[in-house]
Design brief:
single chain; about 270 residues; alpha+beta; 10 helices; globular; binds zinc ion
């Protein structure tokens, strides 16, 4: 079940629609009985500063606090409750969510540590392939998104993806100078198509990413930007993963070359 991912990655105050299965998990959490369902989220722990799995822990649901919250807010339409996760490396490291329940939807009204704090470390691994400016823009995009700022956060992601596309263009130009012709006048999606051999195939195979990117920033609504944020963030991660693999392979090749040279020079 991917409910935890959906909850932890959602922005605050956004209505999250639930499937029947997801609704059942919510009821099971409220009922303090998960019935064999496991809920977890793989991320970085800001306390351990290492990658970890946060597991939903009903044992740690603060029953008395829940009752307190219920007594303050409980009404026919809305209920508030806490969901608590613990880090598998150290059970005193917790991830807490405050959720408001509607009939078929929920709204996240609080989270600690914040999504930006969890993701800040996630992007550290890309420091070999992105500069500090891009790293801080990525963190800013997630910070804005996690507070429900749609267009603002999306502008940052578009900016990052455009810069990555231009980086690919610079590489393509070295191999094939003719690509430069008319490149700057092309629409954004045409630019991506022209760089097919230099960008991850997932960008082309996923029509949704493609159609979101083909829309101008002025055509998108606040709601659409929030809705598409996670998909575009994933596209950026795919490009960066690709770059990181290439970078690491180059280093390995270089090291192999050095080792072979030193063996040959011994002869
Ligand atoms: Zn931890």
């Amino acid at each position: 079940m991917n409910l935890s991912k959906k909850l932890i990655e959602a922005s605050l105050y956004e209505k999250i629609n639930l499937t029947n299965d997801e609704q059942n998990v919510i009821y099971q959490i409220l009922d303090n009985n998960l019935n064999g369902v496991t809920e977890y989220y793989d991320t970085f722990c800001p306390y351990c500063k290492l990658s970890t799995t946060f597991r939903l822990n009903l044992k740690h649901q603060v029953k008395s606090d829940n009752r307190l919250i219920f007594s303050l807010y409980n009404s026919m339409e809305k209920q508030y409750f806490l969901i608590s996760y613990e880090c598998s490396r150290n059970s005193s490291h917790t991830l807490l969510l405050t959720i408001k329940v509607y009939k078929e939807a929920i709204e996240k009204v609080g989270q600690s540590p914040s999504r930006a704090n969890l993701d800040k470390n996630k992007f550290k691994k890309y420091s070999k392939v992105i500069d500090s400016e891009m790293h801080s823009e990525l963190t800013r995009a997630i910070g804005l998104f996690s507070h429900g700022v749609g267009i603002g956060s999306f502008v940052y992601l578009r900016r990052i993806i455009e810069r990555l596309v231009f980086k690919a263009f610079e590489k393509a130009k070295v191999d094939n100078p003719s690509i430069e012709k008319d490149f700057l006048n092309k629409r954004f999606t045409e630019k991506i198509s022209a760089l097919k051999d230099y960008l991850p195939s997932t960008l082309f195979e996923n029509p949704k990413i493609y159609s979101i990117l083909s829309k101008g920033i002025h055509e998108l609504t606040e709601r659409e930007c929030l809705e598409y944020f996670n998909i575009i963030e994933l596209a950026i991660e795919l490009i960066l993963d690709d770059e990181l693999t290439k970078f690491e392979n180059e280093i390995k090749k270089e090291n192999l070359g050095k080792k072979l040279n030193s063996i040959l020079s011994l002869d």
